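Sharing a chain and its predicted structure for anyone who wants a worked example. Both blocks are below, sequence first, tokens second.
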Amino acid sequence: MARGGKRPGAGRPKGSGKYGEETKAVRLPLSQVENLPELLNQLRAVQAQQDLSQALSQEANNPDLSPESHTTADHVYALDFSTKRKVPLYLNPVAAGLPAHTEDYIDDRIDLNKYLIKHPDETFVVRVSGDSMIDAGIHPGDFLIVDRTIEQTNGKVVIAVVDGELTVKRMKRKNDQIVLLPANSNYEPIYIRAEQDLHIWGIVTNVIHPL
């Protein structure tokens, strides 16, 4: 009996991987190996941008959807760790009164990446539009830090795609029912039906809101 070689039916079917298409092995110069995490992150960002463009295109072709009817992500950004900058950390209370010599209150310096981003290779930043999440502190033009590795548990604010519609909502599970809740009384919850296509892009971990 012959041995070796590829077994019939073995392996992953073509197009069944993460990107839904065939893949190709590539060679990476040794000088670029240390840059592999950054290259992978850029690849994920490209895929995320393609998903976003597809979702926004489907929304534009759907007359029942209004840009003002929900909160959505209008841009997706990859993280750039090529530069680092630590800022002063003040542990003493700061009074809203007479100015003080701030240098006297500096206790240490802090790298915000360390506290805001736990999984760099699976984290993106998106900019939002719409006001359906305004009571959750998410305003039009804010930047959201989105982690794709965090478990999708009850009460998390998520980036979701529902039948091609991209939205930012708080996810709740009631028995077997998934509900995407707005944080604005002017909007209605989205009840996910069994025949609908739901994809959770990631969990919002932080909001960057300009004053």
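Comments welcome. Strands lie at 72-77, 87-90, 106-110, 123-129, 143-147, 157-162, 165-174, 177-181, 190-191, 198-208.
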